[in-house]
Amino acid sequence: MENLHFEYLLQLGDNALILSQRLGEWCGHGPVLEQDIALTNISLDLLGQTRMLLTHAGEIEGKGHSEDDLAYFRDEHQFRNVLLVEQPNTDWAFTIARQFFFDTWHYYHYQALLGSKDAQLAAIAEKSLKEVTYHLRFSSEWMLRLGDGTEVSKQKIQKAVDELWPFTGELTTPSAADLWAAELGVGYDLLKIKPLWEKKVADILNEATLQLPSGTWMQKGGKTGVHTEYLGFMLAEMQHLQRTYPGNSW
Length: 250
Description:
CATH class: Mainly Alpha
Strand content: under 5%
CATH topology: Ferritin
CATH superfamily: Ferritin, core subunit, four-helix bundle
Radius of gyration: 18 Å
CATH architecture: Up-down Bundle
Mean pLDDT: 95
Number of helices: 10
Number of domains: 1
Helix content: 55-70%
Structural class: mainly alpha
Shape: globular
Order of helices and strands: HHHHHHHHHH
Number of strands: 0
Distance between the termini: 38 Å
């Protein structure tokens, strides 16, 4: 029988890992030093969350897999992150829009996980919530600055919102693992988080004088291991050293 507890923790850990890797690509390339450092710090926050979640997932799986094993020695189809987080940075506007959509969901989800019956997961949520709260404030403020800024910044952030929108539905679409976790009190009903996410997103977009996309068709598949082409290229870079020199340590 599929270990849905393990799968659920992989979803959470993989989201944080893949988005951390994406943000890490900005290191040394930010538009100004302050924002370069800010994104690097957010990347490190997410990496810290990844380590806790994947370590716990390995314990639940019971096969002796460490956080490094799960990060470096799984193939693309074994990752359970949502498609949104693997989308390329493209430019600053795309990075911010992707971050804002994810941060909003992440904030409400971690708030809910404070009550998880998985005591370790609840502790991880409590430890991470301050970081996630900052992440949401950072991305929300940048949505406002870009949307209500220059004509060029408004065009760029609106384009990013429109193109990333079809990837947002997966955040609040329950997988088998999500349903299992909600039923047993390990996780939380994503359909109850959906209206909170929608309201926050609509409020920020309205304040930023941006148009809320009207499309209802949504991409999905990441939670079951069906990914876009971008994940494979990312993993090839991220996993190269460990796969070339297995077990190597500093």
